[in-house]
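User: Please check token order:
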Amino acid sequence: MTNDFMSDGVAGVLLAGGLSRRMGGGDKCLRLLGGRTILSRVIECASEQVAELALNANGDRVRFKDYGLPVIPDVIEGYAGPLAGVLTGLEWVAREWPDCNWVASFPTDAPFAPNDLVARLQCAIKAEGADIACASSNGRTHPVVGLWPVALRGALRRAMVEDGVRKVDAWTADYKMACVEYSIEPFDPFFNTNRPEDLDAAESILAGADI
């Protein structure tokens, strides 16, 4: 798989800025799965695909100190959702890593994300002449599993601050988005652990998969 993107031109942001209401509060990414936190699994996957990596999370940063990542809180106040996390990642990269022109976003409640995600998103953008790319599976798009150009950070900030845009789909509708379809066999790689019962299902997936 080849493309014109530089491998060191992509940074990553792990999205953990939500309130985890369906999980009963707290940081769902710190729940255990197979004896490890979900966050540790996502970090392992993401860190192999990007040049730099940060964790988007709000509140006390100390709870993530053992993971060795910069923790960047939302640049939009009020728990504005994953789109705020994407904007936070874009502005962090523009400030700290100007050689990176793209940001890959990884939700921290999806412990089985594929290790070819960034490469496939890159190829889809090139092949389709798209502005942004996201993953899809089982007939559903996953807009927070995406690849975003840093150059759009100003447009995204204006949309959120001036127009009050909060839904990812509402903002991406103004751009050409490529979708990369993944098979759900033997399991959906974007299965997410939103609720306590999802953790049980994830344990079953883990027990039957070589991951």
